[in-house]
UniProtKB/TrEMBL annotation:
The keyword NAD does not apply. The keyword Cell membrane does not apply. The lineage of its organism: Bacteria, Bacillati, Bacillota, Bacilli, Lactobacillales. SMART domains: ZnMc. This is M57 family metalloprotease. Pfam families: Peptidase_M10 (PF00413). One of its GO terms (cellular component) is extracellular matrix.
Length: 242
């Protein structure tokens, strides 16, 4: 019995020690958050294999996107105005569009995307999807509600629309789509103003208002939680094909 209580005490002390380290050590917090994100992603993959069901996000109609944006969006940002990004598209059109979008955002000076060849440790991964879901692009961001900072992000460019000639996407509009999704990856939300963040059509490149919004976002206080426990939330936003 004494050994049992001794074991319980050791676990309790370890838990308290981890909680203190999580609260006070940024490296511990970032590592724990990334482990939690990877575990969550692995669980979803395992679930889809066992059940035969795919994890999907339902896109809103064009009218809803134009007027309301995304109900499941979660506000957040990176700790600093910079993030590493992994880009490795097999399709050269998407590869070039992604690289151009990164270069265009970097040229504004409001945010720095740094390319990395390490997919596992990248803050943001740019990849593809091929779904008839009314979304030319889609971004999923995981945010730690304790700190208000992003943990990881995935940007999807939808080949079902962007590479289908019947939808008439020029190279310029594909780049605009990539810029839009990277805007979400920085923390920008949809707007109906003339902006790269307009949710439908991919008609606009980066505007001065977008640069101003990024500067404002990264000079303001983050929206953090008063809870002492880490809570990873996932935000999904997209660009509507039109």
């Amino acid at each position: 019995m004494r050994r049992f209580f001794g074991t319980i005490m050791l676990y309790a002390l370890a838990f308290i020690g981890f909680g203190w380290a999580y609260q006070n050590n940024e490296n511990v917090r970032l590592t724990a958050n990334r482990i939690a994100y990877v575990a969550q992603a692995d669980f979803q993959q395992l679930k889809s294999r066992v059940t035969g069901q795919k994890t999907t996000t339902t896109a809103k109609t064009k009218a809803q996107q134009q007027t309301t944006g995304d109900d499941d969006s979660v506000s957040g940002r990176w700790k600093k105005a910079m993030a590493t990004v992994y880009v490795n598209y097999e399709n050269q059109t998407l590869q070039q569009a992604a690289l151009d979008a990164i270069a265009n955002w970097n040229a504004t000076g409001c945010f720095k995307f740094k390319q990395t060849s390490n997919k596992k440790n990248a803050d943001i991964v740019m990849t593809t999807m091929d779904k008839d879901n009314d979304a030319a692009g889609l971004t999923q961001m995981s945010v730690d509600s304790l700190t208000g900072y992003f943990v990881h992000g995935t940007v999807y460019l939808n080949t079902a629309y962007l590479l289908n000639s019947s939808y008439g996407y020029s190279m310029e509009r594909i780049i605009n789509t990539a810029e839009h999704e990277l805007g979400h990856a920085m923390g920008l939300q949809h707007t109906n103003d003339v902006s790269v963040m307009q949710p439908a059509g991919s008609l606009y490149t980066i505007q001065q208002r977008d640069i101003d919004n990024v500067n404002e976002l990264y000079s303001s206080q983050v929206n953090s939680s008063s809870s002492s426990a880490s809570n990873i939330k996932v935000s999904t936003q997209n660009t509507t094909n039109q």
